[in-house]
Structure formats: structure tokens, C-alpha cells
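Checklist before submission:
- one chain only
- standard amino acids only
- sequence pasted in full

Submission:
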Amino acid sequence: LETHGQAENLKALEQLLRENPDQEIIWAHIGAAVTQTVPKGYGEKVRELLANHPNLKIDTSWTATADMIAGRAFHEPLDKAPDAKNVSRWAEIIVDNPDRFMWGSDTIAASQKGNEDVVATIYKRFKDIGLLDEIRRIGDAKGNSDAIEKFLTENFKNSIAEAAKRVTEFRTNK
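Returned file contents:
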């Protein structure tokens, strides 16, 4: 689900989550969009959404999402240093919600000819801004050392791979 971070879109997302409490909703890119400036306090709004809606999962698979986490404007030069406090705040939100964030569910472009390295590019961007190390550091400090593994692989497998398996079973009447 792609609903960019504008107030009216967040209201629509909240309505969708409220009206479908038994349906897992995966929110693409943490609602990021290249055409928008991330509003002040956005991380806290995301934390609030997670607290109020247990059916919300969040995908982070986009370089623009990494830019948002780094505190950069979208497509700002990569030589601008990431905002370490912002990266740490997002890492803490991820560690505090270890089963809710995933990386890799929205990489359809990777399967298109010429885009084979898009997944590696996204991973590198998250590594370069320090998010992965910060998730490890905060996870270890909070006794949640598996938060990084959940973020990078387990949550994807549990949400996407399981859903794909159920769809296949439905289609084949198994």
C-alpha cells in the first residue's frame, strides 16, 4: 500500500487499518514520496500508527526511504552526511517494533531487465547511512539482538512468502 505522508493520506490509511483489523496491511516506503517533504514529527506519527494498529506492517525498500531516514531531502546529494540522530530515532522505532518492519517486499523493479542490482543498491544505501549498524547496536542494548535479522529477512518471509504460499494453495485448491 502506497499512501504518502500527507495528512489526508494518513487519515485514509488509518481508516483502512481500522476497518480491516484482521487484514495485514503493508505500507510501502513508510509512506515516503519523492514529491513531498517529510513533515516534522513523522517518526512519532509512524510510532503512533504502529501502537494503534497491530495489523500494520511497514516496508522500507526504496532508496528515497533511506534518504528520509537519513534526514535528507529526497534525491539530495549523497555526499551530505546523514543526520545521525534521525537515523538513530528510526532504528529505535524499528527495534521497538521488531516484527513490523521489513526490507525487500517492494523490489519489483529488480526483476526488470537492467535493474538487477537495485536490491543491492537499496541495501548499500541503508548500510551507508548507518541504519543497519544502528539497528544492531540498539537491538543489542535492548536485548533484542534478532531485530536486524527480522528487519532484513524474517519479516519478509513471514509476511510475503507465507502470503504467496497461501495464494498458490488457493489457486491450486490444495
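Reviewer check: Residues 105 and 156 are 6 Å apart (CA to CA).
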